[in-house]
Amino acid sequence: MKNKLYYIHDPMCSWCYAFKKDYDKLKKRLPSNIEVINIVGGLAKDTNEPMPKEMQEKIASIWHEIEKMTGTKFNHKFWKECSPRRSTYLACKAVLSAKEQNKENEMIDAIQRAYYQKAQNPSDEEILVNIANELLLDKDKFITDLKSEKIEKLFQDDLEKRRELKVFSFPSLVLQYKKELYPINIKYNKVDEMLRQIENLSSNIYF
To answer: How confident is the model over 91-105, as a mean pLDDT?
Structure first.
């Protein structure tokens, strides 16, 4: 029986974008008896309202903070070239829709590239459909799934799982052994430390 490492994220979360390279390295080095499961956490509900100027300035400053802390690069032109909205649910559903075509991780990566490197807005359906095209997904199926009851149900299931895991910030890692949950401390640029946490837990709870 495999044990589970849950990665709770949002494709439009800037800290998750910064964590990507560490997460990718960590997955490659995990013990073989651990199954990795992505959970979209839903950072911000759907809205057509423009993001208030004060919030734009706050998030823009966070991007600079993340750059200094992790070395991750952002395209700051986004704030001048796009009309930001505090809305990430559609991007989360795009990830789940891509998962239906076995391209979950590719969609996560592509949304992050569009948002943080190309200064595009993944809150917009048009951008998400363009990304689906780039990934060679079945476009019609993707568009249908994006608005379907099935994807809405899968999304609500992920939100419920996030609550069950007692996660309130992104990114988060939670190791599950049977019914017990063990939060893993996120360490940027310190994959060895996170791996040690997991290995120590593994030995202590007799995986």
So the answer is: 98
- Looking at this protein, which amino acid is placed at residue 7? Y
Residues whose CB is less than 8 angstroms from the CB of residue 108 and which lie 6 or more positions away in sequence, other chains included:
9, 11, 38, 95
CA 18 to chain CA centroid, nearest Å:
11
**DSSP-derived secondary structure for 20-56:** HHHHHHHHHHS-TTEEEEEEE---S----SBPPHHHH
pTM of the model: 0.95
Q: Across the strands, what pairs with 182?
A: 175
* Count of alpha carbons within 13 angstroms of residue 110, beta-carbon side: 21
User: By three-state DSSP, how is residue 174 classified?
Assistant: strand
- Residues in Cβ contact with 21 at an 8 Å cutoff, skipping those fewer than 6 apart: 72
Whether the pLDDT of residue 165 is over 90: the answer is yes
Residue 161: closest CA among 176, 146, 149: 176
pLDDT value at 54 more than 70: yes
123 within 8 A of 91, measured Cβ to Cβ: yes
Q: Are 135 and 107 in contact (CB under 8 A)?
A: yes
